[in-house]
Design a protein that fits this description.
alpha+beta; 24% helix; 20 strands; 6-stranded mixed beta sheet; 2 domains; Rossmann fold; 376 residues; globular; 5-stranded antiparallel beta sheet; OB fold (Dihydrolipoamide Acetyltransferase, E2P); binds adenosine-5'-triphosphate
Length: 376
């Protein structure tokens, strides 16, 4: 048999690359040495609290702001000297900024006409894109004759019609109600697949980021705290900020009492309990750490539950509050130390069973694989 020379696949260069990009407004550092790589065809969501620098980062990419330091590359080209209108980028703003006196069709056609295309080509593109966003029946209407969700789709069509290679969306679905937002999220995924555009989406809404993103970046005070797939960010947050920002979490401060390979024993004084965890973490005996446990990973057992059905960790307490949310109920359990632990229960047994829980003595238990151990 002939031995084939082994050829490793060529690494795909990132489509967007930010290299230690900072932006100062006066003395205020809005974006702080951000380095980030985004691949072609990704839907990359930027998530973070208000004022964390998300919009500023988009504006830097679009060329509406100039970096105070660092470089931005798009498709391998340094953007330092490239003005906004020459970048392969389109940005859809929070306010859709449609022309009020123009019809849907004219609003979408306007940007394409600026590119000097023939009339037939403009018409073809406008028709195609309006069909994709399902706005074909409304071509003759003006913005004030549309709902908020329809206006949002027209703005999206207008941004897409120019066929940007990179589309920057700032809170694109903020004006929509929950149902329409969900539907539009799936439409965006569809559009991304059909047109192959790279999207960078800024959102406050973590559910939206989870649904849309191939990867996401969590921003904290101008810095990127973590980049990863939604599952990586949720299951393996790198610090307390990310753990607490994405979803709900019980954070228990403690000290490493013992470690043996991956098995850690953490004494959580304030919670009056010992947490056993099986995780690869860089820490030594005596270090302060935080055990982060998601509410849905805790089992709430009644007193009668046999011991062998419980996980590696156990704490006793009393249910104080039960909030019925439909698909799940959220229970706040006061454990013996007086601290409160949040537990999410899937609603299998119906409302009556959940109400009965209030004031019930319970044992909380979770597996050693459930807590994430954080050192910062
Ligand atoms: P939000 O989610 O509230 O829109 P954001 O994460 O998008 O917030 P940015 O709009 O990027 O935040 O703003 C980051 C910080 O920079 C904020 O503290 C803001 O006040 C400040 N900032 C933004 N633009 C300017 C400006 N032109 N001049 C001075 N400060 C600014």
């Amino acid at each position: 048999m002939n031995a084939q020379p082994s050829t490793a696949p060529e690494p795909v260069p990132p489509y967007v690359r930010l290299q230690a990009v900072s932006k100062k407004f006066g003395d205020f550092l809005a974006v702080d040495a951000v380095s980030l790589e985004i691949r072609r065809g990704e839907i990359f969501c930027l998530l973070g609290g208000s004022g964390s620098g998300k919009t500023t980062l988009l504006r830097l990419l679009a060329g509406f702001e100039t970096p105070s330091a660092g470089r931005i590359y798009i498709d391998g080209e340094d953007m330092s000297a490239v003005p906004p209108y020459e970048r392969p980028v389109n940005m859809m703003f929070q306010s859709y900024a449609l022309f009020p006196h123009m019809t849907v069709e004219r609003n979408v056609a306007f940007g394409v006409e600026q590119e000097g295309l023939g009339r037939l080509e403009v018409r073809r593109r406008v028709e195609q894109i309006l069909e994709i966003v399902q706005m074909s029946p409304y071509v003759g209407r003006k913005p004030h004759q549309l709902s908020g969700g329809q206006r949002q789709r027209v703005a999206l069509a207008r941004a897409l019609a120019k066929r940007p290679k990179l589309l920057l969306l700032d809170e694109p679905l903020a004006a929509l109600d929950r149902k329409l937002r969900e539907r539009t999220q799936f439409e965006l995924l569809n559009i991304q697949e059909r047109l192959g555009v790279t999207f960078i989406v800024v959102t406050h809404d973590q559910g939206e980021a989870m649904t849309l993103a191939t990867r996401m970046g969590v921003m904290d005070r101008g810095r990127i705290a973590q980049v990863g797939t939604p599952a990586q960010i949720y299951e393996s947050p790198v610090n307390r900020f990310v753990a607490d920002f994405i979803g709900s979490v019980n954070l228990m401060e403690g000290r490493v009492a013992a470690r043996c390979d991956r098995d850690l024993t953490i004494r959580c004084e304030p919670f009056g309990c010992t947490v056993r965890a099986a995780r690869c973490v860089e820490c030594a005996t005596g270090d302060t750490v935080w055990a982060a446990i998601r509410p849905e990973k805790i089992v709430l057992a009644s007193e009668e539950m046999p011991d062998e059905a419980l996980g590696d960790n156990r704490v006793r307490g009393k249910v104080r509050e039960v909030a019925y949310m439909g698909d799940v109920s959220i229970c706040l359990v006061e454990i013996d130390s007086g601290k409160t632990v949040r537990v999410t229960l899937p609603n299998r047994a119906g409302l009556a069973a959940q109400r009965d829980l209030r004031h019930a003595p319970v044992t909380l238990s979770w597996d050693a694989a459930s807590p994430v151990i954080l050192t910062r």
